[in-house]
Amino acid sequence: GAGVSQSPSNKVTEKGKDVELRCDPISGHTALYWYRQSLGQGLEFLIYFQGNSAPDKSGLPSDRFSAERTGGSVSTLTIQRTQQEDSAVYLCASSPRTDQPQHFGDGTRLSIL
Amino acid sequence: AQRVTQPEKLLSVFKGAPVELKCNYSYSGSPELFWYVQYSRQRLQLLLRHISRESIKGFTADLNKGETSFHLKKPFAQEEDSAMYYCALCPQWGSARQLTFGSGTQLTVLP
User: Fold this and answer.
1) Are residues A101 and B34, on separate chains, in Cβ contact within 8 Å?
2) pLDDT (tens digit per residue) in B30-70
3) How many Å lie between the alpha carbon of B7 and the closest alpha carbon of chain A?
4) A48 close to B (CB below 8 A)
5) How far apart are the C-alpha atoms of A88 and A77, rounded to whole Å?
6) Is residue A1 classed exposed, middle or buried when 0-12, 13-18 and 19+ CB atoms within 10 A define those classes?
7) What is B3-110's CATH topology?
8) CB A97: neighbour CB atoms within 10 A?
9) What is the Cα–Cα distance from B55 to B110, expressed in whole angstroms?
10) Within 10 A of A35 (CB to CB), how many other CB atoms are there?
11) Which CATH number does A16-95 carry?
């Protein structure tokens, strides 16, 4: 019974580079969420996918951030032209339905040098 | 826009003492409230949600709409309760999406 899986667990990259973060939700979960947790802060909602509906991108902080969810399963969060303020832990969560609690992954710790 | 405030970043209590972790929110509608917990080296997990009205691991939380609070309480703290606790709000009652989280309270239960 695997939970939400995220990769890589840690990513260090230089400012200006693009990065891709991957999330593999629990099988059968139709809802998938991305959050960002900066140092000393709570989790900040980024984007939400529900089935085949258009994603809710209202939390994305800039147009450098984008996300896809292919085949209703795996999701990739892409950050283009990374900045130092992008350094954070990026958490993915999934749930069977939107009224059900979210199950979180371990996160990807992103560090921008 | 909704906001969740957890005024205490750190809270220490002795084993067996009562513990209350404060959570206040601002939202004009009828939100759904949650408490999530993250134990050391573990992932974030749901502790309880208002709609369920359950007591999990001895913890309870009552939604006070007048004070816009959802404080987490336990009458007798245990060492294994030491963890990071996050209060979260969903703007739609009965839903669990688009959570807004507080900044968290690190609880330490001393022996």
Assistant:
1) yes
2) 888 999 999 998 999 999 988 777 778 999 998 898 999 99
3) 12
4) yes
5) 13
6) exposed
7) Immunoglobulin-like (2.60.40)
8) 13
9) 23
10) 24
11) 2.60.40.10
